[in-house]
Amino acid sequence: MQSLNLKFEAMKKQVLISGASFAGLTLAYWLNKFGYGVTVVELGKGLRTSGSPIDVRGEALDIAKEMGIYDQIKAGEFVHRDEIVNAQDETLATFAINTLEEYLGDIEIHRGDLVKIIYDTLPTDEIEIIFNNSISALIQHEDDVEVSFEKGESKSYDFVFGADGTHSAVRKLAFGPEDQFKKFLGVYFAFAKADQIETGRPKSTGIVYRELGKQAVIYQFKEGANAILLFRAPKLEWNYRDLNQQKQILNDYFAGNTNWKLPEILDAMLSANDLYFDEACQIHMPSWTKGRVALIGDAAYAPSFFTGMGTSLAMQGAALLAKALHANADYHIAFEKYNEGFRPFVEQTQAKVTYGLTIQLPETEEQLQASITALSN
Ligand SMILES: Cc1cc2nc3c(=O)[nH]c(=O)nc-3n(C[C@H](O)[C@H](O)[C@H](O)COP(=O)(O)OP(=O)(O)OC[C@H]3O[C@@H](n4cnc5c(N)ncnc54)[C@H](O)[C@@H]3O)c2cc1C
Fold it and tell me: Are 353 and 185 in contact (CB under 8 A)?
């Protein structure tokens, strides 16, 4: 019996997924379900659970139902009230984003909670997850892809999937340099824990402060708080692995600004070990597949957080690609269906960025006032 099992395992198509977040874990779930041998390689030492709350919307909720995790996501929903404040910390508008008509039915949840919920649905005795490693080279052959890892060894897989986010290593190796596909939105953002900042507001409140070209937010949870800074800027020289340089950039843009809680937020960011700093951008590609390599989620079509759709696109794209592979013995057809079938929705979603950008980072006094009055009751 055991030898039969081993034979069956050996016959399975073997796939490697780079990135253990929404796109990668959702793809792992579905491909394992469809009988593939799945390995996931993640750069982080463990699951990366930081980040501000994210939205799960539309078809991604149906996928969550199919995966049997909808109720857990709903149970973990981050329900909050929100305020827009002025430089003197006076409340200008109070609202509850979860109850606004355009968001009805959506679920907002802490990023880390959703990552863990999806991870926990995976049968870990069937799926291999390798942390603290990364693909360093890919060579495509007709029947397989030869992969080298940063930390030793090489192995061949039937398919390789890049689910490794906006700055995808797989995209770089298989499709070319990031700049070819990246559309910079003229904005940088930073995120850090800010438990120590006193706001005088109850728990589960989001507090938003806006001035021209800048937005600061504090999200207070039941336990702890996060702070986010967003600012418009021209293209800057920066390295995503150089934390000190990122802190210097924040200092350049916010030091000396005494409005609202900006000094305390800046302090929290400058002393953070877990600062998350990035440029806001979108990824646009003519094709998300090349040979036996395919990209999903932010690696392929990052819409930017201004659309609130990054997580939903990642889950939808992953499920769609897995189902296309399951339904078509010829992977060329499956990849074509994925490329063609998902593109209209991706393009429509990416086009929504301008609205979010103007609301959150107004450039004129009129836009600033409109962004506040839109939420006044
Ligand atoms: C730590 C973190 C914090 C975030 N915070 C926010 C936030 O506050 N607000 C927001 O809107 N979005 C945030 N995002 C982005 C958000 O999760 C995605 O936009 C979106 O949900 C799409 O998911 P994804 O799975 O395609 O990409 P991501 O969620 O970005 O996941 C990519 C995964 O790939 C891993 N990875 C990266 N490079 C490699 C590599 N070379 N080899 C192997 N693995 C690699 C990453 O560690 C990560 O686990 C954050 C992402 C991360 C990783």
Answer: yes
